[in-house]
Amino acid sequence: MYSVCTRTVVAAVLLFIFFTNANAQPKRNEPPASAQVFAGIEVGSKGVKMTIVEAGKNEVKNGNLRTVKDTSVNTDFISFTQPTYQATLNGLSKLYEEAVTVYRVEPGHVFTAISSGVKIQADKESKNNWIEQLINAFRNNIKEPGRKVTVVDVVEEARLSHLGIIPDARRYNTFLIDIGSGNTKGGYFPKGNTKDLKLFQLTWGTKSTLNAADKRLDGDKSLSNYNRQLERVLAAAETSEIEYAVNQSGAYPMSDNVAFSGGIAWSLATLMYPELIDNSVVPVNYEELVKFNERILNSHATLSDYYITRTMVENSADTAVVAREVKRVNQVFDQRSLLAGTGLMLKIMRQFAGVQERKNFFLVKNGQVGWISAYVNQNIRK
């Protein structure tokens, strides 16, 4: 019997070919003068993300886009406090300025949007005025009073995510689940076209799950109490929402593949499979994720860049690259965030881990730029 590591490497090589798309293209620091350059900037629940893409003059019509850069600024906008609002405004304005001055993107080729996760949380808390205020202040900062800033609804965002992340060859047998900070959305195309998306959505995301557990701590901020309260939050979410949403989607009999994207998918793929650092997609199964969740809880120190790079199989990957990426993960996701996101993923995954039929599960690392790239692509063709 070959090892889990060997099996994973073989499977991931196949899946890397299986899922290769424009977002997996090598990145360049500066686009060539002959290329047309576009940018998508999104205000999400946790912060502001920017994707810079390029295409040769003859490639734009075909939507053959290559990622030049993707970056983000963590600002926790959905806390709806003055400091997080100001940090979000500053991050949004700074990234716009970087797109225009550093990457020489024409202002008309910069597409700006507010994610559905922000809109959903604002609706919950009656904070839509914060979104309006942010948009108006941003327009004022960049001196573009007429700039279009789209508040993307959850259906359109899920549709664009699928188009930006899943390759055409697997378009109609893959169920995409994007776990964001404030919500989870996704779906699949049951009718053989890309207009009729069967939506899947949850009001739970990594950050909102963590926040719900935090609110139950009642003065005891120990990790054991946090984990206990997290389990209660997730159990309630599973019975009240997750089971129903999966059943209602009808995805189980229609989809061979279930692909998870979002920040938690990227972090888990990086920490669980450091030897596959160059692969944009890695396979995972339910049992592996259960075991890794226990490691997060009981042995979090083993997820440091120092520990991971020193326990990797020799010559399996560039340890310097792995160390940088693992360090990035740990800067974005602390132990409690990892537990919240992984726990939520497990609750969703369990609905598909049937005895009669085993679905193929995948973690998509670069999903954070997927819907933005599709949004840019869509606007280019208008």
Structure description:
The protein is an alpha/beta fold and 382 residues long. It has two domains: 4-20 and 168-369, Exopolyphosphatase. Domain 2 (Nucleotidyltransferase, domain 5, 2-Layer Sandwich); 31-152, ATPase, nucleotide binding domain (Nucleotidyltransferase, domain 5, 2-Layer Sandwich). 48% of the residues lie in helices and 17% in strands. The strands form two sheets. It has a six-stranded mixed sheet, with helices on both faces. The longest helix is centred in the middle third of the chain and has 27 residues, at 223-249. It is globular, with a radius of gyration of 20 Å.
Descriptive tags:
alpha/beta, 382 residues, six-stranded mixed sheet, Nucleotidyltransferase, domain 5, 2 domains, 14 helices
Poorly predicted regions are 1-32
CATH superfamily of the largest domain: Exopolyphosphatase. Domain 2
Q: What percent strand?
A: 15-25%
Using the 3D structure, state the CATH architecture of the largest domain: 2-Layer Sandwich
Number of helices: 14
CATH topology of the largest domain, what is it called? Nucleotidyltransferase, domain 5
Give the proportion of residues in helices. Answer: 40-55%
Mean pLDDT: 86
Structural class by sheet pairing and helices: alpha/beta
H-E order: HEEEHEHHEHEEEHHHEHEHHHHEH
Cα Rg: 20 Å
CATH class of the largest domain: Alpha Beta
Gross geometry: globular
- Number of domain modules: 2
Report, as a whole number of angstroms, the end-to-end distance.
Answer: 54 Å
Q: How many β-strand runs? A: 11
